[in-house]
Amino acid sequence: MSLVRIVVADDHDIVRHGLRTLLETRQGWEVIGEASDGRQAVDIAKRLKPDVVVLDISMPELNGLEAARQILHDVPRTEVLILTMHRSEQVVRELLQAGARGYLLKNDAARELVAAVEALSQHQPFFTSEVSEIVLQGYRRPSVDTDQTQTPSARLTVREREIVQLLAEGKSNKEVATALGISVKTAETHRTNIMNKLNLHSLSELVRYAVRNNMIEP
Q1: For residues 33 and 21, what is the distance between their CA atoms, to the nearest angstrom?
Q2: How many CA atoms are closer than 13 Å to the CA of 178, on its beta-carbon side?
Q3: Which pTM does this prediction carry?
Q4: pLDDT in tens, 31-78
Q5: How many CB atoms lie within 10 A of CB 12?
Q6: Residues 6+ apart with CB under 8 A from 35
Q7: The 29-35 sheet, strands edge to edge
Q8: Looking at residues 168-181, what average pLDDT do you find?
Q9: How far is it, in rounded angstroms, from Cα 23 to Cα 115?
């Protein structure tokens, strides 16, 4: 039986422990790293280059979708499985656009997690029947202009999406600068550009944007 090296990322200790326990019941599988936020998950994945990363979609610092984008860009042989409580066609679409091929509702994790990781470890996609139906419904809809089908977060750069999440979580420009290793002036410039690009006029509007686009939880 081939060895499968896995990283688990969730901001709740008890959830990570449960996922780890489920995964390590399979002979030859090893959880080689754990992360409590998206940024840490990206760092661990880049360093350890696991076969599969299991990512909660709602994490502080960097949400699961953005972490998935960065992991798949930097470690293209790693497969990503997104875990979420929510059924969302938009999230599935963004996930597929990022290159991830696994999406699992947390309610299904107890019975489907091992099968999902098994499929991804063999570079096969995994979607439960319910999620597959969401995807199918999206493709059945009549095509519209590219500008209309483009997901809202696609208008932002990687760095801008990071900053949106940090600001929406209540961090100041100085705290954003510290978290990203940039100057306060650069953080302020990014903030101004984001507000202009999205036609937003207040921090509360930015928070609503982040919630609508699954960057943070309400």
Answers
A1: 13
A2: 5
A3: 0.78
A4: 999 999 999 999 999 999 999 999 999 899 899 989 999 999 999 999
A5: 11
A6: 7, 8, 9, 41, 43, 44
A7: 29-35, 4-9, 52-56, 79-84, 102-105, 126-127
A8: 92
A9: 10
